[in-house]
Amino acid sequence: MRARLVVFPIKGRKWCFSRSVDPFAAQAPSGVTPTTVRGLWKKITSESKPVNANAELLVDFISDKMNKAWMGLEIAPEGSMKNKIHGLGLKLLARVKPSEIFLKSISKEVTSVQVSYPPSLGPRLVRRRLRHIAMSGAILHKKYLIGSVTLLPLTTAFTVLPLPNIPFFWVLFRTYSHWRALQGSEKLLKLLSNHSNPQTDDADENNSKNNKPEQDAQSPTCVFLPSEELYKLLREASEEGLDEETIVEICKLFHLNKIDVLKYRNLV
């Protein structure tokens, strides 16, 4: 599966990294993740798979349960306890950094990426910034993953209270989120690794003398395509960065999540 990534400066030195939303991918049922604990145990024990494959299956199972529980909170009656928990969850989710959301979007199903960017930046600079966010994300989310796993046993102590164990479920979600962001970071680094591309790799400066066309030199796992439409929308940006109207136009053009893109502009 090819993912379309969009990269552009949004405010000063702040850049936006986002993935185009595929409406059909979200609707396609996986049919692989078990729905019950018994089914999960049967799938793990009946098939000889490596440990990391079973870990992925367990993570997918927990993710599916969390998604169903979250949907239940969304449809809760106004003013109920579940509705209040949903409101608290939205406030906590608003604090998640957009770079984490971006890295999580690079799932294991992605086999190649197409990067759209304004031609004024150049593919080499765009690739450097993508590598930077992937490398820093791998270090950061590995550290936070270890911290979240350490906190999980501590938050189970709140189960003695006659209230939903919000700290446990929040730490469980953060553990899952950091795991996915770490996997996405490593996946993106792998897709960007291309030492035979003179357009985007400093290690092969000698190869650039061959004057090969950019399309021929591109790796099949990573293609950089400049977008004139994006460049036209960015030309009138002020020193304060892109206004919300321009951001909305970019989101419509590339099918981006407006809330995630706005987070980049408002990031301190």
UniProtKB/TrEMBL annotation:
Q: Which InterPro entries match?
A: Mit_KHE1 (IPR018786)
* Organism of derivation: Brassica carinata
> What Pfam families does UniProt report for this protein, alphabetically?
Mit_KHE1
Cellular component terms per the entry's GO annotation: mitochondrial inner membrane
Instruction: Indicate the transmembrane segments per the record.
Output: none
Where does the record place the region Disordered? Answer: 194-220
Any one Gene Ontology BP term: proton transmembrane transport
Q: What is the name of the protein in this document?
A: K+-H+ exchange-like protein
Q: What are the top taxonomic ranks of the organism?
A: Eukaryota, Viridiplantae, Streptophyta, Embryophyta, Tracheophyta
